[in-house]
Each structure stands twice: as structure tokens, then as C-alpha cells.
Amino acid sequence: MAPSYSETYTTFVSSTLNARMPDVVSQIRIDNPLLAWALSHKKPQVGGRNVFIPLEYGQHTTSFKRALGRGGSIPIAQDEIITECWYSWTTYGHGMCRYRDDDLENTGKYQVFNKLRADIDNMIYTFKQGMELDLLSTESTGANKFCGLRGLVEDVDCAATATTQTAGSNTVGNLARTTYPWFTNWGRNMTGLDPGSNLTYYMREACNNVQHYTGALPEVIITHYVAKDLYEDECGETLRTMQVNLGDIGYKLVEWKGIPFLTSPQATTTRMYFMGKNTVELMYEPRMWFKSTPWKPLIQQPFDYVQQVLAKGQFCIKKPRGCSVIYNINN
Which of 88, 150, 193, 307 could staple 138 via S-S, CB 3.0–4.6 A? Predict the structure, then answer.
């Protein structure tokens, strides 16, 4: 028996969506350098009730001996320098509905294809806007969404050269920074300070902080274009463009000291985040990373169908000391 129109339609729509699903992930990042940067730090974790990140902190002090002379001994002891933090999984979802009247009105291969393409484009835009907004939020535990930079990299006024280190106030990765101050980032408060006289100095200090703890300059500076333009206007230095590979995609970005600026309209206009290498990870569940369900009939809605796309993961920080923030710029 030949398949019915509804069966043929469903097969066409499903096959088109499945064929374009790899493009959905690519399109989410292809025109958004911030998401491309986050996705370039993607790491799988199969299963688990939570996202677990092993941490290295402190140093061996008991077994370190100075002025070891003839016949001297080294204490046989092992300090505990390894711990673990954990984050909650977060699952994002998006549904696409097919209503019977829309199906009837868009009969024909090309009409169906055009409508489906519009639905997929809308899904890409929705995921992109939602994830970008969350990655720059104040979320620090990941209970309801991806953790954001303003939660993971706190506003603390402290540099690596300070004699007394300042702890953050957030609980990040199930570690309260008031109890574990070593799990806090660096930062500088520019309230009341003239950017023309102070911003360059603090930007250099932030780079030095990151380089001291990661061995390299920051890989990106994340900010709003207002803050980037303010730097260019107030400090008068010439910014250049450079080709930057974020994952497998190349972008032409404005750079300072060889560090690219990643600007986002969702970022605050008063902050610059200096992110060191290997400081963050986007953990994801490979079995549930942009996976789609079959088309399902809606209850009590005859000949209406829905298909849902899910993405499960979490944005985590594992080395806050490799990050620094300048905040209250031009306040």
C-alpha cells in the first residue's frame, strides 16, 4: 500500500530536519564568536548525576625542604592538593509544532521545504540568543541554566600581587568561595577612575595576573562593544584585526596585545573579562547533545504534531585564578 500524504509529509520533514541537525550546531556558532569560543571548549561526560570537574590547588609544603645539608632528611608526607567540584546538568529544549491547517496550506514539496527551513532557522536563532544570554548571566550554580561569566568570574578587587587575597562571595561548583578563597578569580574595581588614565594600566595588570597562573596571555577579552570602543576612544591606541580560530572556524576580530576582543550585546557595558587558556569547559552529554525526538501527535489536537530538540550540558570554570575582570568601567 502506498504511504499516505501524512506519512510522506512526516518522512520528508523528519529526514530534512535530521539532515540539517549537524548544521544547527554549526549555525549556532558560525556567526557568533562568543558561542564559538564556548563551544571550542566542549568536553564530553557520559552519564553521571552531576558534572564533575577535578581540581588542582595549593602546593606541597610539608615535603618541601630548604637548606638540605649532608645527612639531612625530607619529610615523608603528602599534602592533599586535589579536590573536585561539581555542577548541575542543564537541559535546553526547543519544540517545533506542525498544525494541520499549516500542513494543508503549505502543500507541495517546495512550500513544505520553505516552511521547514524557516522553522529550523527560527530554532537556531532561539538557541543562539538564549545560550548567549545565559553565558553572560550571574548564574553560578547551574541549577536552572548554563553558568554565566558574571557568576563564575566575580567582581572582586584583588590582583595576584596583593599581599592579602580577596575571596568571592558566590558558591561555584559547589565550593563556597568564602571558605575556599583559592577558587576565586582576580579583578579590579574602576569606580570613579578615569578610563583614559587607568584602563590601560589595569588591562595590563589583568594580563599579568592571567599569565602568572596559566603561563600564557589571556586567550580572549570578553566585553560589550561599548567598553571596547571606550578603550579605543579614551586610550588612543590603535586596535588591529587578526584571524582567530575558535574551534574549526576562523574569525577576523579586533585585538589588543595579540588578544582578541569578543564582544556581545548581551554583555554589560562596564566590564572586561580576561579569560586564560584551559580555565573553562563546556561539558556536554554526547547522547543528548542537540538530539531530536520523532514527530508526536499532540493530545486532543487532531493531526497536529510536535518534534523537540534537546541539548544537555553545563558551562564550568575549573581554574578561576586564570581569569580576571575589570568592572565598573567609566562609572
Answer: 150
Amino acid of residue 62: T
Element (H, E) at 11: helix 5-30
Query: Which helix (H) or strand (E) covers residue 312, if one does?
Result: strand 305-317
Q: How many domains does the chain have?
A: 1
Task: Judge whether 72 lies within some domain.
Answer: no
Query: What is the CB neighbour count within 10 angstroms for residue 153?
Result: 29
pLDDT in tens, 62-108: 566 667 777 777 766 655 555 788 999 999 988 877 777 766 666 66
Q: Any alpha helices (H) in 60-194, and if so which ranges?
A: 100-105, 109-135, 149-152
Q: How far apart are CA 321 and CA 213, in angstroms?
A: 6
Q: Is 312 left (phi over 0), alpha (psi -120 to 50) or beta?
A: beta
Range of the domain at 33: 5-46+85-327
**Cell 588578544 belongs to residue:** 259
Asked if residue 63 is part of any domain, the answer here is no
226-267 pLDDT, tens digit each: 998 888 887 766 677 778 877 767 777 888 888 999 999 999
